[in-house]
Design goal:
The complex is a heterodimer. By secondary structure, chain A is α/β, with parallel strands linked by helices. A 7-stranded mixed sheet of chain A has the order 12-10-9-8-6-7-15, sandwiched between helices. A 6-stranded parallel sheet of chain A has the order 2-1-3-4-5-11, sandwiched between helices. In chain A, helix 5 links the parallel strand 3 and strand 4. In chain A, helix 4 packs across helix 5, helix 6 crosses helix 7 and helix 8 packs parallel to helix 9. Chain A is globular, with a radius of gyration of 23 Å. A two-stranded antiparallel ribbon of chain B has the order 1-2. In chain B, helix 1 packs antiparallel against helix 11, helix 2 runs antiparallel to helix 3 and helix 7 crosses helix 9. The radius of gyration of chain B is 19 Å and the shape is globular. Classes of the chains: A alpha/beta, B mainly alpha. Chains A and B meet through helix 1, strand 7, helix 8 and helix 9 of A and helix 1, helix 4, helix 9, helix 11 and helix 12 of B.
């Protein structure tokens, strides 16, 4: 009896050890290690001018996998462009980096491996990045989507609502039932802004169009995505869009049920040869290459990237994707015309009056909201069915 | 029709949980609680998805998924039955082990596409008004899972094998006296449970979502264990419970679309609330419906 109990506790201990190792092992290219203790930097004046220079590597950390047909894939493609543009620089990548202190360890390891430029690509990597940045004033951080900056931390993003608005126009034109669907995760301002842009675009061509928004609570939960997709389609939706990290389940399920899709983050038209309308894409490659050059030349301080940089449709940082095979030529032409008007400045997606779901005016007639105001959206516009979960 | 939508959604999203809970029911009838069902489901989801990617045949994938679930459950069986470990502690360990192992090995499959199971509308039957689209437009694994329920009922309550199973969970001395090894019966019961949980996970990845993402079962295995207790260890009630869970998910979505606000964050709490409640009930209820030997779980014994 005693032997059995000892054997069982040994076995349990071994099992726990295995589970600890598998659970904690990083699938990325960096093994975990503790950050170097208190390495005091040389005089801060020279650190200012030299930050970002002299590195042998550039680091990228992703919250998900590089092939998720979505957010992280878009960032990964940017890293590939950097790799090709700077063959002398080693590109370090780590996937599945959680938005916790774990991210700090990964970034510290990359800095140890010679990186003077780090790209934390997920929204929740901002706090860890700010912490690491304080300890390494000679390293430049380009954070994706953040709203806080520091001396050596700049954030970049794109005015993705511009192509999302245009995609909404296309969806409004293509929908036969006038019922659109939007599958999202959590009610952060970025997400609400996209839903609003999409709805405004659709209602510009069909004033009775509605967007049913579903919050799944997760950036990538295929079970919930399948539930939401099926439920929306059962309810009469015939065009689906989404703001999730991974796209496959929603787009494939919609395609199987004969419903059209509007993509996001990356081009997933290969998954929906019949139903793909268009998509809103990030074009990070050129931007990343430019950012690395700026940092390497010691030009970060005072540059347009030192602060909150927001690339626009005109800058080609965000793009409207190509149209699917089943989109008729007149629809393509109409959307292209709208796009031209947007680029020329004659079409403003969020030009007032913009009302919220209860009819209250959020953007007054004649008013054009600033980027900061839009990035703080906390409401849903008229025409959206569904409410913001508290 | 909203009701039809909710019922259809109930079957769609409840099937994976139903399969796992039918399996857990078999295991618990023999006296073993397997909290590692979540790990078996994940193993089945990944194994099934991987084999479907490699062979292009979803049936082989489903079989492989069942086998992976069985393998993970076999660790639980060994530790509990041969080493005398505490069933609840071991089960939880297996759950986390399954989560870690599948996340690690599943890395390369996240972007893969598969030719999985698609809903098949049964001719004639699916044209029946109301019931037709609700019941007869699902994937093959769902149809099989529905057929499984009367089959399990028959085996457990009308055959010798069923008597052996139930006796192992009630009074093993009786089984032993009649010349049958209770440990063997329990082993087979746990393995069968793992197999069905694996099929449940495979249904989720090969049939419902056509995807693999780490921890994609999101608590369904935990819910399955709780459901067995709620169902008083009866197959038909476990099926109803699973569909109730699926209906809750579908209802939440339908309600959102109607414009009412039920927080999805609340919904994510539900599986764990259910489990807590179920464990509370088992602790307090000395009902004759509980397999007697299941009480041995808490005393930490359970070896033959």
């Amino acid at each position: 009896m005693k032997m059995k109990r000892r054997a069982s506790s040994v076995l349990l201990g071994a099992l726990a050890l295995i589970m600890l190792i598998t659970g904690c092992s990083q699938p990325g290219s960096n093994s975990a290690s503790s950050p170097s203790g208190g390495s005091s930097e040389t005089s801060s004046a020279s650190a200012d001018a030299s930050m970002g220079t002299g590195g042998s590597a550039v680091g990228f950390i992703f919250v998900g996998t590089k092939d998720d047909y979505g957010y992280n894939q878009a960032a990964y493609l940017g890293s590939v462009a950097v790799e090709e543009a700077y063959p002398d620089l080693k590109v370090l990548r780590a996937e599945n980096v959680p938005e916790t202190a774990e991210a700090e360890r990964v970034m510290e390891q990359m800095i140890k491996d010679g990186a003077k430029i780090i790209f934390p690509t997920s929204y929740g990597h901002l706090e860890p990045a700010l912490n690491v940045a304080k300890r390494h004033p000679d390293v430049v951080f380009f954070h994706q989507g953040g709203l806080k900056t520091a001396t050596n931390v700049g954030t970049y993003f794109g005015t993705i609502w511009e192509p999302v608005y245009l995609a909404g126009v296309a969806a409004g034109k293509m929908s036969k039932t006038g019922k659109l669907g939007y599958i999202v995760s959590v009610p952060i301002p970025q997400v609400l802004l996209n839903v609003n842009a999409f709805t405004l675009g659709a209602r510009s061509v069909n004033p009775d169009a509605t967007t049913s928004v579903v919050f799944t609570g997760s950036w990538c939960d295929p079970g919930q995505q399948a539930n939401a997709t099926n439920s929306l389609i059962d309810g009469g939706v015939d065009v689906l869009s989404l703001h999730q990290d991974c796209m496959k389940t929603v787009i494939e399920t919609a395609e199987r049920r004969g419903v059209m899709t509007v993509g996001y983050h990356a081009d997933a038209s290969s998954l929906a040869p019949n139903g793909w309308i268009t998509g809103s894409l990030w074009n990070w490659p050129e931007l990343f290459v430019e950012m690395v050059k700026t940092a390497q030349d010691g030009q970060f301080k005072g540059s347009k990237f030192d602060g909150k940089y927001r690339g626009t449709l005109a800058d080609n940082v965000v793009q409207l994707g190509s149209f699917g095979a089943n989109v008729p030529a007149d629809v393509v032409q109409y959307v292209e015309d709208q796009k031209k008007a947007l680029l020329e400045g004659t079409l403003l997606p969020f030009a007032g009056p913009v009302k919220d779901q209860s009819g209250g005016v959020r953007i007054a007639e004649g008013e054009t909201p600033a980027v900061e105001q839009l990035e703080g959206s906390d409401y849903l516009v008229e025409g959206v069915i569904g409410s913001i979960p508290k | 029709m909203i009701l039809a939508d909710i019922l259809t959604g109930a079957i769609r999203s409840g099937t994976s949980v139903m399969l796992a809970s039918q399996g857990e029911l078999v295991s618990e009838r023999a006296g073993v609680i397997n909290l590692g069902t979540e790990g078996s489901m994940l193993g089945g989801a990944l194994g099934g998805f991987a084999v479907t990617v490699w062979t292009g045949n979803p049936w082989l994938g489903a079989l492989a998924g069942g086998l992976c679930g069985l393998l993970i459950a076999s660790i639980h069986a060994f530790l509990v039955l041969s080493c005398g470990a505490n069933q609840l502690a071991t089960g939880l360990t297996i759950m986390f082990f399954g989560m870690g192992v599948t996340a690690f090995f599943g890395r390369g499959f996240v972007s893969e596409q598969i030719v999985g199971f698609n809903p098949v509308a049964l001719p004639f039957l699916s044209d029946i008004p109301f019931l037709g689209p609700v019941l007869f437009n699902h994937d093959p694994l769902t149809y099989l899972s529905i057929l499984l329920v009367p089959l399990l009922w028959f085996v457990i309550f009308r055959t010798r094998i069923g008597i052996m199973l139930r006796t192992a969970g009630e009074r093993e001395e009786v089984l032993f006296a009649s010349g049958i090894n209770p440990k063997l019966v329990r082993y087979l019961a746990v393995l069968a449970g793992g197999f069905l949980a694996g099929i449940g996970g495979a249904q989720l990845s090969i049939a419902y979502t056509h995807a693999w993402v780490e921890n994609m079962t999101a608590g369904r295995g935990v819910v399955a264990v709780a459901l067995v207790i709620f169902a008083s260890w009866k197959p038909a009630r476990a099926m109803l419970g699973a569909y109730l869970f699926g209906a809750a998910q579908a209802l939440q979505l339908t309600v959102q679309q109607q414009g009412y606000a039920i927080s999805p964050f609340f919904l994510f709490m539900v599986p764990y609330l259910l489990t807590l409640l179920a464990l509370l009930i088992v602790e307090r209820r000395k009902s004759s419906r509980t397999p007697e030997a299941l009480g041995k779980v808490f005393a930490g014994e359970g070896s033959g």
